[in-house]
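User:
Hi there, any thoughts?
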Amino acid sequence: MSYKNTFIRISTDSPVDRGIIPVSTRPAKPAHLIQYELLSQAPYQYNHEELLFEVHIRHKQIPEEAVQERRQEIWEELFSKPHPCLRASTLPKKYGWGVHYDEQGKIAIYGADSPEYQRFAASTDLQQLYAMRTSRK
């Protein structure tokens, strides 16, 4: 699912109240860490589908040559199944990152302690959503 003019706030049961940079000790980077790297290094470069695709090829460590040769095939295979939106990502659920979708559906993240987060959270021009809760309580 892709949004436009939408702000996803951190979940109501988030354990943090500021943006925490995710880390991992695993040799292969987990998807949420790749999401963080892409969105923090290139805000508003990716829409939802582009982000999912880039995370997929990096997470699966698909070589660049294979991506160039089989891009459409990899894309179609990836999107032949449904994928959750960023409301389900651990970035806004666990690590305190709000997710902003601009008018073109391009994505950027902002720490819950940042002025930008506060501005987007207070905006009446944006659809306001919360990240999904971790617990069912």
